[in-house]
Amino acid sequence: MIIHNTLTKTKEKIVPRENKKIQMFVCGPTVYDYIHIGNARTFVFFDVVAKYLKYRGYQVDYIQNITDIDDKIIQRAKENKKDPLMWAKEYRQKFEEDMKALGIDSPKYVPATEHIGQVVKQVKALIDRKHAYLIEGDGWYFDLSTFKDYGKLSGRKAQMADDAVSRIDENDKKRNKGDFCLWKLVKVGKELEIGNWKLEIADGEPAWATPLGWGRPGWHIEDTAITEHYFGPQYDIHGGGQDLIFPHHEAEITQQESASGKKPFVKYWMHVAFLINKEEKMSKSKGNFTTVHELLKQYPKEVLRFYLLSGHYRQPLEFSDKALKQARAGIQRIKELTKKLENIERNKNDGIVAYALREAFDEALTDDFNTPKAFGAIFEFIKRMNTDLTSDSIGQKGAEEASQMLSYINSILGIVPDTQDEIPPAIEVLVEKREKFREEKNFKESDKIRTQIQNLGYEIEDTIYGSLLTKKSS
Ligand code: AMP
Q1: Which atom of ligand 1 is nearest to the CA of 284?
Q2: Where are the domains of the chain?
Q3: Choices 3.30.1370.10, 3.40.190.10, 1.20.120.640, 1.10.3210.10: CATH for 321-419
């Protein structure tokens, strides 16, 4: 298995720290709103990574944090006159529902507010090792002058004005410009007891009573506190969207390597390129986003997964109606084949499946999870199977073998739907006939068939994955 490591900027063979065990952590959402399809790109991709590594025989321990305490949550809850912790709880639930609806079942979700003890422990370790200092009335900060390797992941040491994720902790008493907050102090009001913790919710700002003072975790610390608790100070794979390389992941390295003195904190760093909308990163702050919740009302999960996996994870992916239509057409092709395979006559002669889909698929995924190349293999397979089915050179045994190949692929990519729009057989025959004319570049005949199809109440559009058939709305 080869993957691209952001730390070394090269493709490397995966060699886990311990035998066949892989510990993987991916930055999860800040739960103050529904997640958008850009977030889902990252989550669907790592779902495939986890599933495929398991298939390759690795024992994968996959964790994703949930940021359920953060400035944005507090602000949004205040705007809605709600308690921030309750607000976060509600959106955490909606997030998990979206994940389930997208067929993502590989990570264990770990919320920050359930790991305050680990956060405090790590900040104390940083204080003891003289990496952290206090700014009275504000918080505990990391002193960047104490960590000479700062910048080794991103090649950067400073924030840029146009950074998409610019949650900079500003205070003119900071020792160095880039110092970031580890523990944010909050003024104490009325105290509450919740579970083992004393909690304060005055002014809508939750705070925990700890030896560091009343407060809440800084942005970067929850991830390393969580991973140190579950994995120890070093582990195998850390993933996220590319916006997190700097400053977030750089800060994570800084914190964990300083707290434990062990390096490297993480062996392989993997980053997903942006899903973009009208040439800009899709993001909540830009307001150019479409939520997964909305999209799931219009498209089956397989279409969304197909779309998200149709581009290489290290390349930007454009969000458009056209791209979603193409995905829909792709799913129709796959489903048509599965239907044909299910309906094959029992007593037919058995031909063999001439195309080794599984091998071609594995070759693509073992090379840095090249999903578009894997899709190429799937569509080559569909083409060849359709030819063999038309010429009756495949029988029941061959069909079973082909179905098994598709179900293997589906167990990793999740792109084969259980149900499909019922298309009358007469129309299916016309679509296939038209497809043949198109292949022969006989556009006059193919246009005639298009009109016939339209007269029967269906629209047909051509995409890179073949034709997309939709029922005309009456
Ligand atoms: P957030 O809730 O903004 O912290 O984002 C949650 C996850 O989604 C992080 O791993 C981000 O890097 C990732 N992410 C955010 N926006 C995009 C995007 N437009 N394309 C791909 N991944 C994204």
Answers
A1: 3
A2: 2-129+145-167+220-281, 321-419, 421-474
A3: 1.20.120.640
Answer whether 281 contacts ligand 1 (Cβ < 6 A): yes
Q: Ligand 1 atom 7: the closest Cα is on which residue?
A: 39
Within 8 A by CB and 6+ apart from 6, the residues are 153, 245, 269, 270, 271
Whole-number Å distance, alpha carbon 314 to ligand 1 midpoint, is 14
- 425 vs 437: CA distance, rounded Å: 19
On the CB side of 243, how many CA atoms lie within 13 Å of its CA?
A: 20
| Ligand 1 atom with minimal separation from the 274 CA | 20
Count the helices and strands in the chain (H runs, E runs). 14, 19
Which CATH number describes the domain made up of 2-129+145-167+220-281?
3.40.50.620
Q: What is the pTM of this model?
A: 0.93
Which mutation among 25, 30, 42, 44 tests ligand 1's pocket best, with the greatest number of atoms within 8 A of CB?
42
* pLDDT tens profile 398-444: 899 999 999 999 999 999 988 766 788 888 889 889 988 998 999 99
pLDDT, tens digit (0-9, with 9 covering 90-100), for 149-170: 999 999 987 765 455 444 567 7
**Residue with CA at minimum distance from ligand 1 atom 8:** 39
Domains 2-129+145-167+220-281 and 321-419 equal at CATH topology level: no
Q: Identify the band that residue 204 occupies on the pLDDT scale cut at 50, 70 and 90.
A: low
List, for residues 351-393, the tens digit of each pLDDT value: 778 789 999 999 999 999 999 999 999 999 999 999 888 888 8
User: Cβ(275) to ligand 1 under 6 A?
Assistant: yes
Cα–Cα distance for residue pair 250/253, rounded to 1 Å: 5
- Ligand 1 lined by 240 (C-beta under 6 Å): yes
Distance CA 441, CA 471 (A): 26
